[in-house]
Amino acid sequence: MSRSDVPDFPPVALSAEAAPFTPLGTDSWRLGSSADVEKQFSRCAAKLRALRPESGQLKEELNLLFDQLLSENYNKTFDPTINIPPEDVCNLLKHVSGLVPLSQEHLVVKLCQLVHHLLNQLKVIMDERTLNVLVNYTVDALKECSTWTHSDVLLALSTIVYGNGPQCQQHLSDLLGEDGVLLLYSSPSQSNMELRRVALTCMANIFFRFPGQPLLEDQYRSVSFRVFLKTLQSTKPPNTDELFYCMVIQAALKGLQTCLSGGKWKFVGEELGSVLAALKRLMFQGTPGVSVEWPAVLYPANLPQYEGTSASKPVEPPKPSEPKEAAVPGKASANKKKKSRGKGKKSSNDESRGDDGEKGDGESPQKAGGREGGRREGECLSKPSDPSLYPSWKTTSSDSEFSDPEGSAQGKLRLYHCRVRQGALHCLLTVVKGVEKRTLYGYWSSFIPDSPIGRPTPLNLFTIILKDPSPKVRACALPVLSAMLDGSRQFLAVAEDTASPRTSYTPFSFSLATSVRELHRALSLALLAETSPQTLTQVIKCLAYLVANAPYHRLRPGLLSTLWKQMRPYVRHRDVNVRVSVLTLYGALVTTQAPLPEVQLLLRQPESSSSSSGGSFTPQDSALSWRQRDGVSSPSRTPVKSSIRSSSTHSPHAPRTPSEEESTAPWLLQLCMSLVTQPREDQSDSDGAGSGTALEPSPVRLEALQVMSYLVRGYFSLAQACLCEIGQVSARCLWEMDPSIQLHGTKLLEELGTGIILQYRAENNVPESSRVPMSQVMLFWSEVLSGPLNGALQSEQHPPLQKSACDTLSSILPQAFAQLPDKTQLMCITVLLGLTYRENYLVKTAAVRALGVYILFPCLREDVMFVADTANAILAALDDHSTNVRAKAAWSLGNLTDTLVVNMESVGVDFQEELSDMLLLKMLQAANRASADKDRVKSNSVRALGNLLHFLRETQLTRSAFQQPLEDAVRALVKTVQSEATMKVRWNACYALGNAFRNPALPLDSASWSCDAFSSLCNVVTSCKNFKVRIKSAAALAIPAKRACYGDVARFSCVWRSLATALENSEDTNDFLEYRYSASLRHTLSQALLHLLSVSEPQDMPGLGASLAGEEGGVIKEHLIKYLREEEGGGEATEGEKDAVGDSFTPQQRVGGLQQTLIRLKELQAEGEEGRGKEEVVDFLEDLLKTCEELLRV
């Protein structure tokens, strides 16, 4: 391109007063194709690189070439084909910065404009040298050039430092240090608003960082934080244009957001309250009718002086002279709500306005407030006593557009106010995510109402969600509310309103329950009013967060029923994202505190009951009913079987008998199955036109499968009627090519298998008539195992799918597995054994876990070959580098050793003799090594050690090869009991020692490690803070069946004193949560003391007599009486704890055992001191027995 091709620019005198050069916009002239733009850049860059400081006419050449470069549009969004190498841009800017002296200020301005223009439009990532050169140049320009140039210099600097703050450490002292230029220009005392805005933008860009970049030093972050906060707290200076003030606030909001987004921010003193107060004020910046006195600080309390109505504006608060609105607000609001909803159905302008971008942001108060204009809207917002929260922006009575021409000053001001509100909400979202949840709970009342309808409610997030005229602002407020609700389950768990509230005061639990109800009410109104798909999606997601965290089992029923019916029409919405979010919400409904009685009733309702009711038809139904118009579906789309999809329409249904309703699958389950398998209707979807055979979009199908899994998990009794149909849906998913669909299909199969297993567990007490029949279970698994699941198991390119397929195999009902054909059983075992040697840790973890499940199957556990193969696979996995694999391998090893003990008791010596000694030795050594691993591995490895020590025979224990591993195993258990590991690890170790004590072949009386084992248990039973660990240790001390196992008199006395002391101190704890185990602890300790008495010998009598005859004996007697009288169980002990204690006797049986002990002690031959001790013990037991017999007779 020649120079003549470049348009002539009018001559402009460059001076401090001249306006900065502005390149032409994208809608103006351009130079042709991207190749022309690249050639123009290369030509100008070559000429600039050829220039030298001593060149003649340097100034004129620079002016001309700068103008030519600035006149080009390099924006890749405008023309993505533009390809200018970043290194060419960096070399050009480095070279040019050496050509323009700081004394030539007009050239400095043009160079800064060029830097901003090229870096911003080409998105250049600079090398370190270019960054240093340009930062040095701009910092020097700020020091030496006149003030009139600083706006352009700061703009260039802000572009340079964007995302490069950590690389600019050496310049931060000049910019952000004491008397730094950015602090000077960003100060609220700065009168030049443009300089102030650009300085704040530059500070914000310094703190912006990409993922992985380090944070800036705390001193600079703190200084900038105070500047941003002070800017947000400052009022608009007099004689300042409102637009410029809004731009300054936007820059400060962005800066505060980037400053706080770098990890957890430690707020000092009232900083958090100050930030929240400033952001709350700016959330309503420019909102029509809002005129309140904003506090400077928000405190974590609901104080009455907050947001009081301004006394300087008497037109806003309710007037005593207006009794119709003040005295009867409910009536007026109800009339207004009814009228507005009627108009909402007729107006076609709402939808276009909701979907509009900036057009909606600039709406006039007349448009928002209906015929009464801005004053009516103002009254709605400033009168918190008005109970009607129906969105005022929906009460439109005119189809006219803006009252003033588009682009006018007033419309532009509304647009800028809208952007400030958006920025404040974005910043608030960052604060909510960055502050500890527990700290934030104190400020909930400032953003979420805690008073019911009819009471004064301050301005909050709901005011924005329901009343802000801009859909963009409303959409920004919803993620903030979602972030506050996310993870709030522990806080909301206190909410309760099932009981009548006290009249004297309102409990916190009732206030919190009121907040939950207000959340439901306001979000339901927003759901009715919104037409923008993006905002509608946010509303539904927010409802899903609420449902997932609220304690509905503590609230009055009805909230979920209303929401359930209200959501049904939205499953047919045009927009894919809306449909996905609706399914997410239904997933939350069927998972929250499942099974919830209210949800069970909703699932049992016939499919036409709620859809035919008038209350569920929303104003958007005309836009939603795209699957079936006028209640008539396309004949070509109607299947022979009753269409599941048509069940969600408003067409009438034939009445059903009660028996038919009970056998019908839940509507939600039918809907999800149809979404996964049925073709879409002929009409196009928002994600693109679809053919007649096209299925639902993948996100919808995945979410539907997820909801089906949740429903099966929480409400299996309702879903089991469609067991085979659900299995067919899963099989169809597995035949597809999409790995995500296949993955969700296998997860659904796993949930079905788990549900069947839970039904057949004896402890769940499910009547046989309510279970899935075994014939149906067999049919289900036969079809699954002969179908496409094999392909998923062999899908090496998709490890998550293989992992899920392994989990599915592990969810087979043991009774059903036993009835499968031998070749099917062999296929399952062979596949799992092979997958344990795969490299991928996900697959290996799942396969090892599945083997750990199979080893417990009665039909497999006695198969020595299977046990040996499984043991070898587990031992190999225990040496894996992945902690997850080792943890599951240890769990499976624990299950395998449980099986060894069961077989030892059921099969006998034959099984022990068939199992290889070498394999047992390897298992013992591997468990010893694993006991030194992380706690996740250690907790099950110590369980395996206890089982192995119980299983080993005397011939094995006496072999030299077992001597050292045996001693290492016991010492590993002793070390774990005394360690600072997690409590689960310690109580497993105590249980393991007790398990080892059951082996009569262990030389407890003579082994060197025996003393350490008893000593560790005695120490834990008296000193451990965790009562469950004490219970396990006391149970272990009561297991040795012979007196010789306890060793000499000193060790026996030590065990007795430890148990007696532990019983005396069984209620001493500072942890309230431990009290629930105190009864179980006393039960176990009492049983252990009676066991010691039952095995005691004459040499033990002096010590026992002294203990029982003294003050300690009185305490022991009191607890033993309670133990002998209490019913079977003993406190809140779990089944495992009861098994460990070995006590499931009735009071009569316990007394009978005490009588046997007394008879045996009387027959002991004891003389001298032993005789006196024996008399004291016998007297104690006779007195105890007499007292118990008298109490039992009563």
From TrEMBL:
Domain called DUF4042: residue spans: 419-599
Comp. bias (Basic and acidic residues): 347-380
Compositionally biased residues, Polar residues: 617-641
Ranges where the record places region Disordered: 309-408, 605-663
Alphabetized InterPro entries for the sequence: ARM-like (IPR011989), ARM-type_fold (IPR016024), DUF4042 (IPR025283), HEAT6 (IPR052107)
Record field: compositional bias (Basic residues): 334-346
Biased amino acid composition, Low complexity: 642-651
Top-rank lineage group of the source organism: Eukaryota
Name of the molecule in the record: HEAT repeat-containing protein 6
Organism this protein belongs to: Eleginops maclovinus (Patagonian blennie)
